What does this fold into?
Amino acid sequence: MKRIGFLSFGHWGPVQGSRTPSAGDALLQGIDLAVAAEELGINGAFFRVHHFARQQASPFPLLAAIAARTSRIEMGTGVIDMRYENPLYMAEEAAATDLISQGRLQLGISRGSPESALHGSRYFGYTPAEGEDDSAMARRHTAVFRHAIAGHGVAEADPSFMGGGRGLLPIQPTSPGLPRRIWWGAGTRKTAVWAAEQGMNLMSSTLLTEDTGVPFDQLQAEQISMFREAWGAAGHGFEPRVSVSRSIIPVVDAEDEHYFGLRAQVDNRDQVGMLDGALSRFGKSYVGAPDALAEDLAKDAAVQAADTVLVTVPNQLGVEYNIKLLGNIAKYVAPAIGWEEPAAQA
It folds into this structure.
């Protein structure tokens, strides 16, 4: 059974046409959109995390607020850049947020993507150790974070405070089940295999930082297949989840045509280019008549292979427009890829 979620980049700024002129607007509208999405039957509310940019940067207050206002929808990230994180503080924040949500938190994490700041994590106090690069530091932070949320001891007890007791103390609180709801944002087939070996779910976006000449959906489907094969070989004892992201814009009225009519002509094919020093393949956007989109998505190999599809939303157009967008996707497009409303799923 497919799950459908929205993925917001959380853009804000005083630019012409934007309905999110401030950070406060973006945050409050993110909460309102999640509440409305739950009412539509959408399964997830996910947010990108970027530092030194007019986007969402500190996800846990937002996710906790959504958790308190909703009862069914999942909330998560896509993705948290682990280069920037204090893993133990993050473990406390994640556990508290998951407890508020009663087990609905789905955390996407990764090494991070190209950013506006040069070596931005250094300004947060995190520099790779000798022999490390940024990727290795992010994976080290990830290992400490996952160790902590599993309830393992991380800090030596003070015998004078603990009545003579010794040993390692775990962070508090912890939230049962959270360790199985961590996703790794993998940009290549190799990193997807690594994520499977580590026991993390797979989150794959609209680009891969490699190219073999095959269409994007086929390359991504190969990535998913390799992930599942590696997962089976690792024997983790539970079934993983896999998400892919897609830009899906059903054009159903004059407003949609005004905003996205030209984009349907420009972005309807894969693009290949250099990103962060690597030849990368970018997936096409799905923009156009709803019946045509439904037919195209039903043929998308990676969409069919994943259990969760995250739809990127133009958050700067405001809550009302994005509610309409998600409603049109749920009504006209999502059933073609195997999605059913939660009432029907039950």
